[in-house]
Amino acid sequence: MKLRLPFALGLAMACVTLAVMRLWPFTPPGEATRTAAAAGDGAPEVLRPWLQDHLYRPLQTPQPGDWLHSSPEWAQSVRVWQKSKPNLPDPTRHVLYLMPMGDFPEGGRAPSLEVLREYLGLYFGMEARLMRPEPESGPNPERRINGESGKPQLLTRDILKWLPGRLPPDAYAMLAVTLTDLYPKASWNFVFGEATYKKRVGVFSLARNDPAFFIGGDALLAPPVVRALILRRACLILSHETGHMFGWAHCRYYQCVMGGTGSQEESDRFPLGLCPVCLHKRYLAGPFDPARRQQDLVDFYQRNGLTEDADHARELLGRVGVQP
Angle at Cα 201 formed by Cα 197 and Cα 203, nearest 5°? Predict the structure, then answer.
């Protein structure tokens, strides 16, 4: 098939740019670039105090093993995100759904699905509902045994093909959750989760959230500490993958929940909060009261043993000038 010159030229330029990105190490953007990325075409007055650059931790130079050290990606400013024509909630599609896939034994080490549903609703300021569980065999996913962990894994590609047919009519997006480890293709060791940008479906696994995943048996930590750690990791993946279903790419501006990650150690370094770029995107997807949202998250973190995250969220409230 003969390509038209403008398209062919654009495709060639994109390939060259990606090749250069792979060879040239990622350099974190400066304050001016970060500020411009968050501002977009201008933020509403209620959001402006929350977009100040000094309130957030900028990205540091990635080290070997970090996602941005070896994974070139396009930067997605607020303006670039808007131009991508992302899905947005509307009066018809306005509910976030969490669909358990497989068994979740009561009293197990996995976080309560009800707690995850609550967090999903608070984080995105939308109604969130739990769906009835579906068997892991439903999407008939390809399975394998991971050579490193010795644990079974499900292929995300097969799950993501199956999920759109389960979307309720009022769903903005639906995220499946499983206790089985995941992988996106044969060449990858694992993936925490994967979501589509346009089809409004995703899947994530709680398997690697537990320190006992590799150790076997109970982890060498006090149970309350284990529960808090497992919950924090689940909340981070849950909000990250849901963000992708709003069309948000991996963040290349700040330490942010939307940062790309290739290991549990790197993932644990990310905050649960949104940076100013991603917070502005969330506001444009549907206005909300940023102070109320932040206070609700403080309360959630405190109630569920996420003390450090509660302290950080409370500190941000104070620095913006809101009395916690």
Answer: 110
What is the C-alpha radius of gyration for the chain, rounded to an integer number of angstroms? Answer: 20
> pLDDT digit string (tens) for 296-315?
999 999 999 999 999 999 99
Going along the chain, which residue ranges are E strands?
Answer: 95-100, 127-130, 143-145, 152-155, 171-178, 181-183, 193-195, 201-205
Task: Taking residues 238-263, report their average pLDDT.
Answer: 96
Q: Can you give the pLDDT at residue 219?
A: 54
CB 192 within 8 A of CB 239: no
d(CA 35, CA 275): 11
Taken in order 54, 60, 66, 69, the sign of the CA dihedral is positive
In angstroms, the CA 48 to CA 52 distance is 7
Phi/psi of residue 177, nearest 5 degrees: -130, 135
Residue type for 135, please?
P
Report the Cα–Cα distance between both ends of the chain, in Å, rounded.
62
CA distance 281 to 43: 10
Q: Is 142 a catalytic residue?
A: no
List 31, 118, 194, 241, catalytic entry: 241
Q: How confident is the model at residue 27 (pLDDT cuts 50, 70, 90)?
A: confident
Q: Please, which pLDDT band fits residue 153 given cuts at 50, 70 and 90? A: very high
pLDDT bin (cut points 50, 70, 90) of residue 222 is low
Judged by DSSP in three states, 183 sits in: strand
- With CA atoms as reference, report the closest residue to 77 among 48, 45, 35, 43: 35
> Is the Cβ–Cβ distance between 117 and 130 less than 8 Å?
yes
